[in-house]
Specification:
about 20% helix; Urease, subunit C, domain 1; 8-stranded mixed beta sheet; TIM Barrel; 10 helices; 7-stranded parallel beta sheet; alpha/beta; single chain
């Protein structure tokens, strides 16, 4: 039986024979599919039904789809997953990531192929429910959250330095109350010498069985990076801003700090989180030279980074192409890896049955440039651009209207209808006017 989404079962008669009704809602044809979870990088068709991936195959009959989009020459990937953003906006609080320093999700996601984000600690247990009601529940983007170990969240120095507001049990309780949304605990920006924020974040993460993300704050001799990576964090915890160089990621000899390798052996995850001041080209180039690639690529997107070196996910992904990673490497670290890191294994892949979150990307060639935290420029010859984004099987962004019919093929009186199907455009039927009697 056809889904209710497409209405009642209809038979189509072709040359005197009854053809079966369309099996799929949407078919993306002839794109180069990159699906790292399934070790796939090849030209494939992707079919979607009821908001889920229904089939991935070399050839799928377009007659079996209600709507077909030709994506020849483009890359079809899982929807991009950005696990480090700041999106708790709208409170009106000045100079606060629980306010004016954050961004509205839907304005900065779909146009870059991003379908899922994780807010990185803007809210704590005291204000998470306001964040949920104000932003998470109202966004088309899938917004998940790392809960700040600071109860008041990321509201500036006097809050984030308050050790008395770093309580593990209330944070864990809030995470357990909303397990589908709170996917981790965050500690960030701490200026002091104590280990309290890291230790309490780990306790909360352990109680709630979720990972911890660490922005290690000020560099303090009492809190060396080696101890964080080799003793304080658990396997599966995330060290973000891993290429900043601000916390001795490079040793005095210019080589990568051995603690980085030791942490990776223990299962610590290394995330980019470029942001406004957390990636330096001397650090990242040395790390890549030593084959220390990031586990995940993320933006640390906020008002200070959106127009600076970071800009958006595709800009950072393109930057890593310029640094020498392959396209398959970059897609893996922007889809499946981050989804797996935050225990969201249904996302970041195109497996049959997975949510149909899809990005269709073009790879532009030309003369491009990328900036690090200090404003130094890196030259590049390739840049990714988003052509089409699907969220749960629905087109939510279409740069060049490739999913739409050409207007010259439609009747002159076409209009948008209330039909939920893909081509919700049809001629307007004008009521017949009564004819005058002779």
């Amino acid at each position: 039986m056809r889904p209710a989404f497409l209405g009642i079962l209809v038979a189509f008669t072709i040359q005197g024979q009854t053809a079966p009704p369309p099996l799929y809602d949407l078919l993306l044809r002839n794109g180069h599919v990159i699906d790292p979870k399934n070790n796939l990088s090849a030209v494939r068709d992707v079919a979607i039904l009821d908001g889920k991936i229904a089939a991935v195959a070399p050839k799928i009959d377009p007659a079996r789809a209600f709507k077909t989009v030709d994506v020849t020459g483009l890359y079809v990937t899982p929807g991009i997953v950005d696990i480090h953003v700041h999106f708790y906006t709208g409170t009106g609080e000045k100079n606060s990531y629980a306010g004016d320093l954050s961004l509205p999700p839907d304005g900065f996601t779909f146009r870059t192929g991003v379908t899922t984000v994780a807010d990185a600690g803007c809210s704590g247990y005291r204000n998470f429910e306001d964040f949920k009601q104000r932003i998470i529940d109202r966004s088309k983007t899938r917004v998940l959250a790392f809960l700040n170990i600071v109860g008041n969240g990321m509201r500036g120095g006097r809050f984030e330095a308050d050790i008395t507001d770093m309580e593990a049990q209330p944070a864990a309780d809030m995470a357990l109350r909303y397990p589908e949304t709170i996917i981790g605990i965050k500690t960030a920006h701490f200026p002091g010498p104590q280990w309290t924020p890291v230790e309490n974040a780990v306790i909360a993460g352990t109680l709630a069985k979720i990972p911890v993300m660490v922005d290690f704050g000020s560099d303090r001799p009492e809190r060396p990076l080696a101890r964080l990576l080799t003793a304080k964090l658990r396997p599966g915890d995330i060290y973000t801003h891993c290429y900043s160089g601000l916390r001795h990621e490079l040793g005095d000899d210019g080589k990568l700090n051995p603690a980085m390798f030791e942490g990776r052996k223990r299962g610590i995850i290394f995330d980019v989180g470029q942001g406004g001041g957390s990636l330096a080209f001397p650090v990242v180039t040395e790390a890549l030279k030593e084959r220390f690639l990031p586990d995940s690529i993320s933006t640390d997107l906020h008002t200070g980074s959106m127009n600076a070196g970071t800009k958006d996910m595709l800009n950072i992904m393109s930057q890593f192409l310029a640094l020498g990673l392959t396209l398959d490497d970059v897609i893996r670290r922007s889809t499946w890896n981050p989804a797996h890191e935050i225990h969201q294994d249904s996302l970041g892949n195109l497996s049959v049955g997975a949510p149909a979150d899809v990005a269709v990307l073009s790879l532009q060639t030309g003369r491009f440039g990328f900036a690090d935290m200090y404003g130094a420029r890196l030259k590049g010859v390739k840049r990714l651009q988003c052509e089409l984004t699907l969220r749960d099987g629905k087109v939510v962004y279409d740069l060049n209207a490739i999913s739409r019919p050409d207007w010259t093929t439609l009747p002159s009186n076409y209009r948008r209808t209330g039909d939920p199907r893909w081509d919700a455009i049809s001629p307007v039927r004008t009521p017949r006017q009564p004819q005058p009697k002779p």
